[in-house]
Amino acid sequence: MDWWEPLLSTLRLITVTIVGSLAIGVPAAWAASTLARCGRSGQIVAKGFVMAAIAAIAIPMILHAAAWEATAGKFGWLPLTQTATQSWGGFAGLVACGWIHSVFGAAIVAIATWHGTSRVPVSILENASIDTTSLRCWWTIQLPLAWPWVLAATILNASLAATEMTVVNLYSYRTIADQFYLLYAVNPDLVSIATTTALPLGFAVALVTVLLGRMRTRQTDYRGEHGRWPSTPNLFDRPSRGVQIIAAVILTMCVVVMFVLPVAGLVAKVGHDVIVDGEQRVAYWSMSRSLHELAAAPTTFASEYQWTAILGICTGIFATLIAWPLAAVGRQRPRFESVVDALTILLFCIPGPLIGMLVVQTFQFPIPGFRFLYETTILPTVLAMSVRALTIAYWILRSGYHGIADSVWLSARLDLSLGRRVWQVDRPLMARSVVIAMLAAGIIASGDVPVTLPVAPPGVSTVGTRLFGLLHSGARYQEAALALWYLGFIGLGITLVRTLTRFRSDRIQ
């Protein structure tokens, strides 16, 4: 089997993804940081953008594809794109996949850049404020100092582009992960496994190096401003009116591209259709049809919603139960924590189809009970979905444990046994982090189609896998209605996570 063409296709997709995500995400982060220093209204706008970016990250990739397909795809509601996919030929696949990955990656870059620039030590900003403006300081001082976070986000986007196969499969753009899914998912060999994992694991090693290196040389945050808006202290004058307008325009365009336009595309597509009359196409939109399809979707796709909820809840709980002790032990043993950090990142970068098939092959061993579990339970599916969910849960819990002041942690270790410490100290302080980890892991796992497709048992169909099938079959308003309800459920989950985070108890210093 010739792997060179899929490799080149993967590298092209990675290049487009990196360029597109940086071009959108970095200016968006600057705009959010700038508006955050423009009074209460600017802070509200900046917070809204951060929430929109987090929502864009939480939305599964297949849902991004469904939204953009409903907006500008072959059957999209924009009239000028009705024949775009057909007329562009093979180049359309790279454009479509690259755009979807770029929009998704832009949200990751924006959050990472905003976080990195807000953690620049105040002493550096105080010196810079003497002879430079806030605009110049952000681009020439804060952004270069935040390069580890930007680089980590870039590597993560490259890894996702190299491992995700549902979007590229939709547009018949053959990457390495998609090639493995199509030709080797049933009977993988060592060559196919090594070829499929080589590039993602290379990115994983780079990501581990950057993140762990950053954590070892972590700069001290300014305690008086930690966790408060604006993200940088008021060391500079208020940005000029022109800079504020530019920042507002950039931020508005980014929100529209990353969130508003795809959602509007789904809303429009529910009631949109095209009638071919001879050589003419007549497009129309009906409110009554939109309401009818939205009302019918919960019944039509009841099984998909139920299985998605069941698998998401089970996976979130299972992944959190595994991640909690790892984070707890890592809090008191730095070397163990570094090992777990690296392993979780490596697991996250393994292609989904490979994870699914490894789980399937594991349950084929002649061990009593394995055949029964594989044929009659969802345990194999939950295990496969938990691989990436474990990473999400672990890093949330890890952050929660590091939010506990050292004085409290050391005192608890001296005065209490392990069991009493977990019950009296860890449980109340980590309660919200545990719930957030369960919700986040469940949301991410529920839309992980590359992992679910090879391992889902017969009769089990999630929203993601059903969307995958509907998009391939050319279904239009059906997939839009299915996606809108799923998007609403994800929105509720994100709102709950945000509420728990917002009202989180003050950390004991």
UniProtKB/TrEMBL annotation:
Highest taxon of source: Bacteria
Keyword Isomerase: no
Keyword Oxidoreductase attributed: no
Subcellular location: Cell inner membrane
Main location: membrane
Protein name: ABC transmembrane type-1 domain-containing protein
Membrane-spanning parts: 12-32, 44-68, 88-114, 146-171, 191-213, 245-268, 307-327, 339-360, 372-397, 429-447, 480-500
Keywords assigned by UniProt, alphabetized: Cell inner membrane, Cell membrane, Membrane, Transmembrane, Transmembrane helix, Transport
PANTHER family in the record: FE(3+)-TRANSPORT SYSTEM PERMEASE PROTEIN FBPB 2, INNER MEMBRANE ABC TRANSPORTER PERMEASE PROTEIN YDCV
Membrane topology: Multi-pass membrane protein
Classification via Gene3D superfamilies: MetI-like
SUPFAM superfamilies: MetI-like
Positions of the ABC transmembrane type-1 domain: 7-212
Taxonomic lineage from the root: Bacteria, Pseudomonadati, Planctomycetota, Planctomycetia, Pirellulales
